Amino acid sequence: MINRHRTLLTAVTALVTLGTVAVAPARASAAAPVSVTFAATEDVFVSQAEPAKSFATATWLSVCGSGCGSATAGQRLALARFKVTGIPADAEDVKVTLDVVSARTTATTVSAREVTGSWTEAATTWNTRPTVGSEVAGSHTGFTAGATAKLDVSAAVDGDGTYDFALTGTSDTTTVLMSSRETGDRGPKLTVTYTPGSGDEQTSGPLPFTLPGTAALRASGKKVFAHYFTPYPVSLDNAAPENDYYARNYLKPEGESGKHAAYGGLLRDRPTGRAPLTGDYALADLKTEVKQAIAAGLDGFTVDILSVTSAHWTRVQNLVKAAEAVDPGFKIVLMPDTNGLASVDAATLAAAIAKLAGSKSVLRLADDRLVVAPFKAEGRSAAWWADWMKTMESAHGIKVALVPCFLDFGKNRDAFAPISYGFSNWGGRNPAANANLTANITTAHGLGKIWMQPVSVQDERPNQGVFDEAGNTENLRATWKGAIDGKADWVQLTTWNDYSENTQFAPSRNAGWTYLDINAYYLTCYKLGCPKITNDVAYLTHRLQPVAAAPAYAQTKLMKLRGGSTAARDTVEVLSMLTAAAKVSVTVGGTTQTYDAPAGVSARTFPLKPGTASATVTRNSATVAKVVSPYTISATPYVQDLHYRAASSDR
């Protein structure tokens, strides 16, 4: 997608469908600027004073505030749709303006805002209008009869795609635009000006692209949070990693006096180890995790609140403190867990949440409502949550924006709609379960709610005896595609650190930073448009064993494929992000195969075989990337281990 070289991006989200192989440039080229103009494909205005009337054939667009025409409820707004095509993937220094021609001279201000939901020129009235976003994409003040006014909407356009805008105003003076399509070439237009990229930029570093700065990423209205699970901090006892609690008790079948022996140990992965620390190591570790998340482009954590009294509650409080100390702009979303809080009454929960709400790092909306996103919200009824929200306001003076995270969205959305600001669900962990993610997003938007889309890597649960087939990185890419294609408002990475379910994105023993690095690419696509690949990088993912391999350890409980999951497979995947086409040689278990990989993002799988795995990328006889997995594949694993390992050529 296109790249923007601006000091500030407005907090607006783009209405665009993205592919998985889109790229964008790293720096401006010396080529001459190019301008392309796109006429509106549909436009209409609607009037609150005449709510059932269609103005589809009008030769003007009318915009004004609620007191328009001396009416007490006379607001008018205009809608315009544009289809943008042919913008090159390496476009740089991009500026986009929404151009309208005025019929009158006025001192009014017109703002462009994103539109959510479907509409057509012929059928739309005030009563059937789509939802208009609260964020301003661009505005213009002062109109001259017969002159073209330009609204800068650059931050809302990320390349080829369909864009819907609403033109709104607050003044009771009517702004009349000769910009209905019925007036011919004076209709609304979208003008895209850019400089073609040279295509030869190359950078070094662990990522295949230049990650935009924190300020630029946060300026986007789209937010990406990771689910923080308090049972698994960086360290549980501040011991050396080779002999800490994870090593002694969670990774060994005989750990914790053998309580996990039946399934070969509680965990298969763990946080990246570190040497013992002096002082308050628990708070220091949480600060480290906040810094890691910021470095990976995340906006914050959704923290799972399992208790309001135990060590888990202490970690929640410390996480809030850590975020505030490191960067209050890194936001913590409070997520009370109805499983862990089943015996906690409404007043007790309200008091606990209110205690956290005073922190600058806890997420609030622009109107100061506190965002609360309960996990398994349906564990309490909608009426219970409504009463709890009243308690929050009456007892603590805190208004709540509820964003329930459901296990079953379809069964609960209607009951919760009247009390909710938005919706989310916990989601699936295999490509088959994530084949139609846009439907939930569309449903939520149709109800006037934001949607927080779950994005996940994988899911294997030894203690529960179940696993999902993630298909190497296929599930990660599929869930991001759903978020992007469906225009999700927020994203929740599920999870940052739940090692018991093996869903973690956090830097870990088995994957290092690999999943966060891959995620950073798609996060940037989601927020700002896909960045240009400026560094050749190859990622290698595989399991340690064939799915059907029997472990040497006498496990009595083995993981089985979750019902409805994608079929289990034994594959090694090479995910490449390349500056230009290249040859990739892949060796698995002593067998080497070579293929031609295109520029951009591509994935190729190969049969899993015992032995080692590696991939080498060459171009013009020179090696540009090489990744060797540090994990040996075995047909006879010690314990059943279905967690996908991951390695990067640049880490």
From TrEMBL:
Membrane-spanning segments: none
Record's keyword terms, sorted: Secreted, Signal
Phylogenetic classification of the source organism: Bacteria, Bacillati, Actinomycetota, Actinomycetes, Streptosporangiales
Name the UniProt record assigns to this protein: Endo-1,3-alpha-glucanase family glycosylhydrolase
Compartment(s) of residence: Secreted
InterPro entries on file: CBM96, Glyco_hydro_71
Lineage top rank: taxon: Bacteria
Residues annotated as signal peptide: 1-30
Domain Carbohydrate-binding module family: start-end pairs: 36-194
